[in-house]
Amino acid sequence: METASQKAAEGHSTDRVFQALATVAALLDRTINEMKSIDSEFQERLLRAVHDTEASLQSQTAKHFEAATADWEIERARLNGALERTARMGAEWEAERGRLNTEIERLQSALAVAQAHKAIEAASELPANNAALSKEIERVENLIRNISAIIENPAAELSIVMRKNVERAELEAYLKGIRYAFERR
Question: Whole-structure pTM over 0.90, yes or no?
Answer without folding.
Answer: no
